[in-house]
Amino acid sequence: MARKEPAADAANPGRLKQIALTYKMTRRADKKIGLVLAAVGIVTFGVFLAIGFLIGHPIYLGILGLLLAFLASAIVFGRRAERAAFGQMEGQPGAAAAVLDNIGRGWTTTPAVAMNRNQDVVHRAVGKAGIVLVAEGNPNRVKTLLAAEKRKMNRIVADVPVHDLVVGTGEGQVELKKLRTTMLKLPRVLTGPQVTATNDRLRALGDLMSNMPLPKGPMPKGMRLPKGGPKAR
User: Fold this and answer.
1) Residues 55 and 26 reside in one and the same domain
2) Which residues contact 141 (CB under 8 A, 6 or more apart)?
3) 68 plus 119 within the same structural domain
4) Which residue range is the domain that position 162 belongs to?
5) In sequence order, what DSSP letters do the residues of 129-191 get, joined into one string?
6) 95 near 176, Cβ under 8 Å?
7) What is the domain count for the chain?
8) Which pLDDT tens digit goes with each residue over 118-174?
9) CA distance to 21, 162, 167, per residue, from 86 (Å)
């Protein structure tokens, strides 16, 4: 047990430092964060303390109120910190990929499966909802990228549903802060083994393309890439 104490002691300053950095980052975008957290904590504690005096148990309700005040402040802080982070990431290249990396268990994400010279990009996520293609960039240009990637998916995994989302604030687009929620709301149509099989087929395609002996420089005229991926076992 004694050997674990130094590691635990070293971890605590790390967590506190991370919380402090998160607070500073949030405060840059949300100037009222300190007042909001203080108000939430004081009001929560005050309500429980008042109830405690009314029922004759101020100490018990005061302790409970203090714990719940801390919990309520932590929840509010987490939500406002998340909102501030999304606000800073909005419009930045690769922001959607960062959200996909933290979408949760059950999803396998592959960033930048398609890209053009204007840095419009398409990311891919595979889960029980099927294949989700997430595009970020110019709404008109990414349509071409999405269409090409969907055709590729239909050739390789025709039995798996393919969804496409465009990140943005325009009509028909998904805001960055709502991307994770939108994906989690998609209907689950695949089983765990089917998700694994889909990932294996897509991974095999990636390995095949990366190992092809393509010549350097411009592609010779008339040369074509194979249209199909490896057949499913």
Assistant:
1) yes
2) 116, 118, 120
3) no
4) 95-210
5) TEEEEEEES-HHHHHHHHHHHHHHHHHH-TTS-EEEEEESSSTT-B-GGGHHHHHHTSPP---
6) yes
7) 2
8) 888 999 999 999 999 999 888 888 888 999 999 888 888 888 999 999 988 788 888
9) 16, 26, 12
Q: Own/partner pairs for 198-206, CB < 8 Å, 24+ apart?
A: 198/126, 198/130, 198/131, 198/157, 198/160, 199/108, 199/126, 201/156, 201/157, 201/229, 201/230, 201/232, 202/110, 202/124, 202/126, 202/156, 202/157, 204/229, 204/230, 205/156, 205/229, 205/230, 206/110
The answer to whether the CB of 166 falls within 8 A of the CB of 173 is yes
Same-domain pairing of 108 and 172 = yes
**From residue 9, how far is each of 4, 18, 22, 112 by CA, in Å?**
9, 15, 21, 40
* Residues 110, 84 share a domain: no
What pTM value is reported for the model?
0.60
Q: Of 89, 114, 130, which residue is a domain's last?
A: 89
Which two three-digit tokens encode residue 17?
């430092």
Hey, what are 181's tokens?
């929620």
Task: Establish if 226 belongs to a structural domain.
Answer: no
Last residue of a domain, one of 57, 89, 121: 89
**Tens-place pLDDT, residues 74-94:** 898 887 777 766 666 665 666
